């Protein structure tokens, strides 16, 4: 998800949603703005606005992995009654991302950080079309036997890079 | 209003239910709102029920997420008891012959209403529900509406023939329904909540009841409304295709998935094979079309038996059974089709005593994508055989998997990206079930 953006139907381009112009403020005005922002940020933590973030809460980053693969992982979720695992990512560099998703022989492995188990069985709908920057895509993994479980943490291993402490939701 | 669902009997499911309930309680504590009491099951139909059949809905706006990362501005209905926007609207479950009351509170910037196609004698604010006209004689609404922002209207009716129905906006219908103003109404036979209709042969397993509310949306139309402008219908083009408000792969996510807070209904189907003793009843799937075009929904792995259409049993004048098997459920706009679905080993194939009398297909015929498979290298449900060394096996216990999707393949995409959209997965476990996921 891209906060503050949506995509136009015909052009397919990401565009900013309507915003409100910020008026010129005095010192007192900025204090008010700061208080309001603090309230908004605090409220966001405990509100349903969380889902507007592009990544799930607590999702770690690995810049080296992102520069290598051209993608950023945004979510790992247990789905389908626990039997499948969905890993979502957003495209940062379409050219690299296309290579990443086309390399079917070397999918990222998802390893449990709780036990010595992992899965790299990408089972469904690995997409083969032109990828777009800012758009999210997904991989669906086999999760037989509950290799990775909701509430735990996992690591994503790809091309020598490791994204650790990924919270698993579901 | 008490959303209910019969708990699944499996131990793992009970654990999941408990975990989900705990998660919901924690989330509620954090979010400061009432618990989503629907968090009773990870998959299958979630009903809103009420001892008095009274439902209070709030017409409201918020956003939904699509799998490709888009964020779509929506209008829909919230169950006011839970106080949480959701899309589609809550699934209301009632009993045929009982009086139903739906109170609509409007917070939208324009008037809105609810029509209940298929229900007779609907009353709005004590008067017959009927089209409304302005002083110049122009139609303003199909029924009495709740005025913008603070209006209220109360509808009452006696629940009609058992089956599945849409409820949706009757005001500026094209716009408001496109914006998401619809939900499902399930009418159960009096005394037989485990039947689709009044016929005994429509009985289903209550723990395997599914709703597939199908629809589509054009994000540009929603953006126009978000910006307070009109929708340009001349350029309307649906880009997202939904089951229960979600697109693949979100359709696989559990009910009330935390990352889809405004889209509570999943569409993953998980059954066991038919067994006369341990699993004699089929699942039921209730198809509804809230969109503007046909959705040729293809179950893909098995026929489904059509037993009810538009809230009427498929039977002759003398009550003879006219239900029929379909391999493509063509759901037309506004239509509902209720089916029974099971998985039967009709020929009683057995690897040792009654083997399949043909050569088994090569593994390459069974590949889904690349070098992985959900095929167990055996045609016998519940049997796994060794796979070639270069093949990865996703199969736990010899179960079957298959996708199910709209066979208008542009409807199986997310903004043109295949696969996605109106698609989900069915899983069929052997009679004994799987000991693990």
What does this 3D model show about the protein?
The complex is a heterodimer of chains A (170) and B (437). Chain A contains three helices and ten strands, in the order E-E-H-H-E-E-H-E-E-E-E-E-E. Chain A has 170 residues and is α+β, with helices and mostly antiparallel strands. Chain A folds into two domains: 5-52, no CATH class; 63-169, Immunoglobulin-like (Sandwich), CATH 2.60.40. Chain A has an eight-stranded mixed β-sheet with strand order 6-5-9-10-3-4-8-7. The longest helix of chain A has 19 residues, at 27-45. Chain B is mainly beta. Chain B has one domain: Sandwich (Immunoglobulin-like), CATH 2.60.40.420. Helix content of chain B is 8%, strand content 31%. Chain B is built from three helices and 28 strands. Chain B has helices spanning 11-31, 173-178, 219-226; strands at residues 54-65, 71-79, 84-85, 92-95, 99-106, 123-124, 127-128, 132-133, 139-141, 152-158, 163-168, 182-188, 209-217, 240-243, 269-272, 283-289, 295-298, 304-309, 312-313, 324-326, 329-331, 336-341, 372-373, 392-393, 400-406, 413-414, 417-418, 423-429. In chain B, the strands form seven sheets. A seven-stranded mixed β-sheet of chain B has the order 3-2-1-5-10-6-7. In chain B, strands 13, 14, 16, 18, 19, 20 and 22 form a seven-stranded mixed β-sheet that branches. A five-stranded mixed β-sheet of chain B has the order 15-28-25-17-21, with no helix packed on it. In chain B, a hairpin with a 5-residue loop joins strand 8 and strand 9. The longest helix of chain B has 21 residues, at 11-31. In chain B, 50% of the residues are buried. The chains are: A alpha+beta (170), B mainly beta (437). Chains A and B meet through strand 1, strand 3, strand 4, strand 7 and strand 8 of A and helix 1, strand 1, strand 2, helix 3 and strand 24 of B.
